[in-house]
Amino acid sequence: MKLNNFAKRAFAVGLALSMVVSGSGVNTDIAxxxxxxxxxxxxxxxxxxxxxxxxxxxxxxxxxxxxxxKKIVKITVSGKKKEKAVIxxxxxxxxxxxxxxxxxxxxxxxxxxxxxPNFKSVSVDTYDDSCLVLNxxxxxxxxxxxxxxxxxxxxxxxxxxxxxxxxxxxxxxxKKYRVYLMDSINNGGYVQITSGVSKASTQYKLPFxxxxxxxxxxxxxxxxxxxxxxxxxxxxxxxxxxxIAITKGTLPAGLELDKKFYMIKGIPxxxxxxxxxxxxxxxxxxxxxxxxxFGIYDxxxxxxxxxxxxxxxxxxxxxxxxxxxxANTTKLDIDKLDDPSDCYAQTYRITPMGGSGTYxxxxxxxxxADVRLTTDKIADDASKTVTKKAADETTLCIxxxxxxxxxxxxxxxxxxMDANRTCTATxxxxxxxxxxxxxxxxxxxxxxxxxVCVDFISPKEGEEVDSxxxxxxxxxxxxxxxxGYATVAYYEAELPADTYIVKVEGDVTYxxxxxxKVAKADKIANVTVPERFYTVSGTAAYSNGNKLKKDVxxxxxxxxxxxxxxxxxxVDTNETGNxxxxxxxxxYTAYVKDEKGNRKYFSKNINVTNKDVSVGTxxxxxxxxxxxxxxxxxxxxxxxxxxxxKIADTQLYFYNDKGLCVAQPKxxxxxYYKVFxxxxxxxxxxxxxxxxxxxxxxxxxxxxxxxxxxxxxxVATDIAGATAYTANPLAPEAVLNSVGGSxxxxxxxxxxxxxxNLAASTAVNNGAELALFDANMQYIAGSTTAKDDDSPAVxxxxxxxxxxxxxxVYYIKxxxxxxxxxNPYTPQAQGEVxxxxxxxxxxxxTPAPTTTPEPTTTPDPDxxxxxxxxxxxxxxxxxxxxx
Length: 883
Fold this sequence. Notes:
The protein is mainly beta.
């Protein structure tokens, strides 16, 4: 038997020797052994609540992970082949983690040590309800997001069983962390954070208070009319139901407090004013008080609010130091302004109730001669006599030249049917000096962070006072910012003197570790974000290969994709589509916005770990084709351009057949333009030239790049489609229909020389640009209106007091919506446009020539001229560092 075994061993040795002689067998076996799956560690020691990472090397197949003690450790896997595993210690004990690759099993022994509780307290950030502030008992610089578990509940006696994912944590110091969540904590909700045996919880409680900052509200009611007034709506941040009691004063006759629903109900029976103080208490026992001023009016009594018959308005506004040095040139023309708010710093509408409904208004001795009422009509002659126009309301206008301090203005209101029926509106304006605060936002390793919003929060006011975006990185170079040149990641804000919390909206809302103190002077204050960032660079292109030149790319954290989220990082590409941006660790998706403002994502995710990243070329999921050429001046349209054959430094607008402005290229100094637009479309091209929008013609774009698409301005093209308008007698109104892509245009030939007024209204209520030209399309006058929250049902754009000559042809153009200067561009409105022309019955002066040279600067199509100002010097000195 022994001999046989020996014989077998001798045979095996002989076989091995024969394999050695063959040569290649040994090398193959060695290479195969080196590529076998292997764990990064065979033994691990973890504290309870902490994590460690295991990785399978040389994994050719998907890895299956398991453990024999699920109560001791928890496994979270990642990677294309599930080759990575984060092992979290749950409690003291020993366990074995097994990684199975095909048929091979690899094991790691885990020892979990006990952990002493180390959480001292947790709170929800007052100004960021998706951020927890965690305080530790002892220093721990190793805490990671994977170590933490966050749960919420809504009831006091409920269980913390609603899990909230942790996005990231940022260390303020070794004993304090900011924990950023993937969801918000509701006011009144409870939140618990755990790590092993460490645990802390809190209830999120926003301050319960009255919504009115002045401590009072006005309620105007008509005598005999039914009243149902909710009182709980006057308060905010209550937790649970609110109970309300009247602590001082008596409700007007006929009204009562419904103690079940806490509403004021009834029918007021007496026309008079009164005041009550109410106290509201929420379920936590927190209380807030508010004064309610009732004004009961009828056809014999005026009412404007409180028990003194006054409107008690208090408002804080910014002092405009530059404007103080300039005269308010609009003060004598206030009654002629369509919208005084365009020329005044602040306006207050005063609307009395009761009496006949028509009143006269007298401003009681203002401390600034430029403070005016819109009902004060100023005579056109040298006397400048003021006539008080009766109206149902008036507006108090505060000029830009008002100085810092507290100003009180009283407007006495009298009923035109009975001068003894009076009341008084009181407006208190607090004018506060603001200071320019500027600087650069950087990461804690010194990288400039572009395209993020910097928020300045006043704890005293309990709200954000101002915010500013940092300039986007432009291939690492400087950017033009405002009236000067600024470096990358530069911001500029206007703030009154105060101490501010500074937050930066990136993938999370970072908070600088130190506060910003603004004294009574401009200052430079650089902001440091408490996290390390890395440089991500590459080239951006459309899906068809054209580069995204001078376009904006946004980078959002992968788990925030498709959300309406303002905290993305932004970057401008350069002339060749290259970009460079600073990002913290994480996985990001990049996107660019199309003409409608929709996000178009790039196909490649960007992973940022602990080093700079070059992503090569990334392509967006949309195709754009280039159109380029020259713009020529085919006719003399003003004195300054009559010898020019090319139109340089001029904004162009490409409208599609839906009236959407898809692009706004600008010609260079040689009249050259280049634009990227969708293919298979025909565009109407316009330009902002010589004070007005002009039509150049149409361009058909195929699905291919196109060169030498030259455009020539010609009067015939500009006035194409003009509809004759009855000259004399003047019709009440002319009506045309805008199809969206083209201007509405009338030709008009006055029968008499005189002073004319033009008014265009658009039923679509998006505003309009109205322009008047002579027969050679030389600009004479123009006006623009734009829709805002206070716009009336139909907007009217006017050109007033323009002298027109008899028997001469004039053209009137209406662009139903002003061209918007930011992406997404607003479509040009479609719908009915009405034009009214009236002639004033006054002596006709000699008309001014229409060939007067236009200003050399081209005005922005969307901006109203600002009041006169003087340049301010850049702050100098050593900058503060906030962070």
